[in-house]
Write a structure and sequence with these properties.
The protein has 180 residues and is an alpha+beta fold. The chain has 2 domains: 96 residues, Immunoglobulin-like (Sandwich); 58 residues, no CATH class. It is 37% helix and 31% strand. Helix 2 packs antiparallel against helix 3.
């Protein structure tokens, strides 16, 4: 009995050290959006690390918010396909919240001849460009009305393609939070 007691403690310590490592939950800290390989009008979300290398170990169901609608995406080998195909070019805001952080990215998806091309839009640009245009217009007062009209057209373009002010501000705030 005395010889088995130290062996029991050694086995117990090894088991308690290995068990949490094996049971760690998978997290998506970063992701990319690409066109699905089958080119069926659907988007693929790829889990990546900070260097934007694919994480093939990510498997399971993760909750994403896509333009404010919650969707459960099934990841297999680090890739999930959005269930609904896109009909036209549009802005899409992807957001994933895990236990540690919230990751949000804004994309403009250009659809041409059944081919999707996602363009990532930096959140601060959505605030800096209109503010810069208004600042230039204010400096040159006679161009102020022209720039206000351009800003309204800019706003209408965003709104007509599915982007509203809440998504612009949320994208900008998440970008600012990532900087700090």
């Amino acid at each position: 009995m005395k010889n088995r007691l130290p062996l029991f403690f050694v086995c117990f310590i090894i088991f308690t050290m290995i068990s949490p490592a094996a049971a760690q939950k998978q997290r998506i800290q970063n992701f990319l959006v690409k066109e699905n390989l089958t080119q069926n009008g659907k988007l693929a979300i790829i889990a990546v690390d900070s260097a934007e290398r694919p994480l093939e170990t990510v498997n399971g169901t993760f909750i994403f918010s896509i333009n404010g609608f919650q969707q459960d995406l099934d990841f297999h080998d680090g890739i999930a396909v959005v269930k609904h195909p896109l009909e036209t070019s549009t802005f899409v805001f992807f957001k994933h919240k895990n236990q540690a952080t919230t990751v949000g990215k804004l994309y403009y998806i250009h659809k041409k001849n059944n081919e999707l091309k996602p363009f990532k839009i930096h959140g601060l640009l959505l605030l800096i460009i209109p503010a810069g245009l208004l600042l230039v217009g204010y400096l040159f007062k006679r161009f102020l009305t022209v720039l206000v009209i351009l800003a309204l057209v800019f706003g209408y373009f965003y709104y007509a393609k599915g982007l509203d002010i809440s998504k612009i501000l949320e994208s900008a705030f998440l970008t600012i939070k990532e900087l700090f």
